[in-house]
Amino acid sequence: MNSSDLVMYEEEFQQIDQELQKLYQQTNAKVVFLVDKNGQLIASAGETHDIDTTSLASLTAGNIAATGGIARLLGEKEFSILFHEGEIDNIHMSLIGQRVILVVIFDKRSSLGLVRLRVKKVTDTLSTLFNSITVKAEQEKQDGKLDDSPFAEISDEDIDNLFR
C-alpha cells in the first residue's frame, strides 16, 4: 500500500469521530478536524457550517508541507506542532504519526495551554488508531481483499474521450 493511501474502516472512523468530539468539548474549541497529508478532510467536530472545510483542509496540508521544508533547511526532521495566533481565532496544528494533521481552531473561550494539554493526550490514541488501520489494510491487501483502485486502468486519453 502506498504510504499516501488511507483506507478508513467504519469501526475506526467511529472511534476517531468520538475522539474529535471529546477534544472539541474538552478544549472549548470552535472546530476540531483531522486532515490527511494530501489535504483531504477525514473528520470534523464543531462549528463547521461557516467554514470552507475543503479549502481549509488543503491549506492546512500545504502549511505543514511548507513548514516541513523550512525544518529540513534548518536541519530538523520536522516541526510537529504549529500554532498561529490571530486577533479573534487561533489555530493549533499537530502532525500525528507522519500520517494525519489534527487541527484545533479556538478563540478566547479557551487557551493555548489547555489546547496543547488535550491535544497531547488525544495524539497517542489517534496514533494507535491509525497504526491499527494500517495493519488492518496491509493484512487485507495480503489476503487479496483490498484490490487496487478500480480506476487504475483508466488513462488520461479515456478521460479526455469521456468529456468530449
CATH class: Alpha Beta
Beta content: 15-25%
Q: What is the CATH architecture descriptor?
A: 2-Layer Sandwich
Helix-strand string: HEEHEEEHH
CATH topological fold name: Beta-Lactamase
Question: Helix count, per DSSP?
Answer: 4
As a whole number of angstroms, the C-alpha radius of gyration is: 18 Å
In helices, the fraction of residues equals 40-55%
Strand order of the largest sheet: 2-1-5-4-3
**Poorly predicted segments:** none
Mean pLDDT over the full residue set: 86
Brief summary:
By secondary structure, the chain is an alpha+beta fold.
Topology readout:
Blueprint: H1 10-27, E1 31-36, E2 41-46, H2 53-73, E3 81-85, E4 90-96, E5 100-106, H3 112-142, H4 156-162
Antiparallel strand pairs: 1-2, 1-5, 3-4, 4-5
Helix pairs in contact: 1-3
Index terms:
alpha+beta; 4 helices; 19% strand; Beta-Lactamase; 164 residues
Q: Can you offer a commentary on this structure?
A:
This protein has 164 residues and is an alpha+beta fold. The chain has a single domain (10-162), classed as Beta-Lactamase (2-Layer Sandwich), CATH 3.30.450.30. 47% of the residues lie in helices and 19% in strands. The chain has 4 helices and 5 strands; from the N terminus they run αββαβββαα. The protein has helices at 10-27, 53-73, 112-142, 156-162, and strands at 31-36, 41-46, 81-85, 90-96, 100-106. The chain has a 5-stranded antiparallel β-sheet, sandwiched between helices. A hairpin with a 4-residue loop joins β3 (81-85) and β4. α1 runs antiparallel to α3 (112-142). It starts with 9 loop residues before the first helix and ends with a helix. The model has no long low-confidence stretch (mean pLDDT 86).
